[in-house]
Design a protein that fits this description.
The chain has 215 residues and is an alpha/beta fold. It is built from six helices and eight strands, in the order βββααβαβαβββαα. This is N(6)-L-threonylcarbamoyladenine synthase.
Length: 215
Amino acid sequence: MNILSIETSCDETSIAITQNGKKILSNIIVSQVKYHKKFGGVVPEIASRKHSENITLILKEALDKSKLKIQEIDLIAVTQGPGLISSLFVGINAANTLAYIYQKPLIGVNHLIGHIYSAQIENDLKFPSLVLLISGGHTELIYMSNHFNLKTIGSTLDDAVGEVYDKIARNLNLSYPGGPIIEKTAKKGEDIFHFTRPYLKNKNLNFSFSGLKSQ
């Protein structure tokens, strides 16, 4: 089965074509970092506009690289959330249009579940599984007893890890995105300051990262 997948949940426009859930025929990603960098974070209006500009070009490139024609696609998948509403709309609109014109089945995908199942490209998931999901604005601990039973057993009570990195980088006048530049800068420093680690003594499995910004 050839699946064409569209992802526009935040600031990267991506289309991938996979075969039988394992073989990646093409995976085209266009980043928008240079447009959001001066703002220190993603600007939704800019993100959606860039998605609109890129989506058709990326579709052609993905099909060309896969050496498939759109008629050979068996199913279309698209991120339906969570994400920026205006960005999601671009991908969903493109997917609906393709599905209607070429009469292809269409499924909406939760992109957090997509992150989990991306691991299955190389290794089949085994159950029960414990998943630490860290993605942009999300930090969650998920227990999976099978493919259809997922339970969030812990999550951030305030900022996600990615948000903290970006906010700290902005406070230190470092570039965006914050994660890579903070990691690079930290490797040049000395281990002389130890951050407080909250919630270690709590009985729940939640996280808290907002305090890191003020230490």
